[in-house]
Amino acid sequence: MERESIGILFLFAMIVLLLIRMPVAFVMLVLGMAGIAWIKGTSAALGIAASTMYATFANYALVVVPLFTWMGYIGFHSGISGHLYDAAYKLVGRLKGGLCMATTIACAAFGAICGSTTATSATFAALALPEMKKRGYNRSLATANVAASGILGVLIPPSVIFIVYASITAESVAQLFIAGIFPGLLLMVLYMGATWVVVALDPKKAPPGPSFPWKERMIALAKGGIEVIIIFAAVIGGLMAGLFTGTEAGSVGCFATLVVVLARRSLTWKGFVTSLKDTVRTSTMVMFLVGAAAIFGEFLGLTRLPMLVADWVVALPLPPWVIAVAILLILMAMGCFVDALAMILLTIPIFYPAAMKLGFDGNWFGVIMTLALGMGVLTPPVGANVYVVYAVDRETPVMEIFKGVWPYLISLWIACLILLAFPQVATYLPSLIK
Q1: Nearest CA among 97, 120, 100, 125 for reference residue 110
Q2: Is 337:18 a contact under the CB 8 Å cutoff?
Q3: pTM of the entire structure?
Q4: Measuring CA to CA, how many Å separate 9 from each of 13, 241, 391?
Q5: Quick one: DSSP state of residue 396?
Q6: Residue range 141-161: average pLDDT?
Q7: In angstroms, what CA-CA distances link 266 with 78, 226, 263, 270?
Q8: Domain map (residue ranges) of the chain
């Protein structure tokens, strides 16, 4: 059998195994080793698997995964997320739909110290949903807003997704981080606009909250914002000034976060230990998934499928933007069945070479793939963020949450179309890095 046929056969087997809900990492590991063994023999498969897994775990660039993950957990256990939500609530909570808008703003700010979409959704599901229920918000709107706003956690740097993308494509972590800032702010504004439209059509879904004096708003903003501003300025400011690399930014971010929370005495010893445990658990999961994907990527390389797909895509008599839209549709469809991080790991070896041959910017393409990931974590039947919110709020049926995400999915598509029309939204800031 030709190598290309073997690759297609194994991709089909992977789709079947994923549809029956087999663990993604083990599927990629087993199929990758089996495919290499078919092509090059069992001894070669064992050798390649061992060396690839070791190279993944020893990859210096991936050191930032546990570091930026720890930043997020420190922020959660020290109460930074609560301060952010309180500040956003007092700023815009008096508006119709203001609590949803406050959640979106707080998630964007929390994204500056947390690189995980599910962690961001889980954090604000616990913080925001009780307040929305108390104010009489429609549950479908409230839960969908929290699930969707969690995506801002992986667009606003730091982002675990960007780190993984950079480790596979050899793009600059620092430039990817910077590239996500404007698209993240754009999506935040679009989400707030979606909330406004929903409430304008049916005001009963989100009654206005109380109005706070400007002095109280400024105090809350200073208390909630100053912490994130210090951390964000230390990490992103240093990256843009060229003071350190994207990998070194992880240690700078952790140090800055610890200094801030210790100065305010907001982190207990129990919270510190728990943050370390949570970081080890999450980082181990991510690293094993990346290692398994690397082995499967080695197999795909042997089959020559990525190169053939890239050549075929380039030869299509279509404008590059049409092909980009087609890739987005494929990623969105895959996101309905595959875990978000796994989807990125599976599709990068296939779509990235095609994107480069079409002349797309690597940072821009990383942002586009992350937005497509956002669609995946909101769409059934997988919808990871939806199930995270459901795990926190068992009173709202899952289908009610899925029903409420459509305005935010439309916002994601609008963001993608804006980036297709104006790539500078993602490419301008990276061009300023020294």
Answers
A1: 120
A2: yes
A3: 0.82
A4: 6, 48, 37
A5: S
A6: 87
A7: 5, 14, 8, 11
A8: 3-432
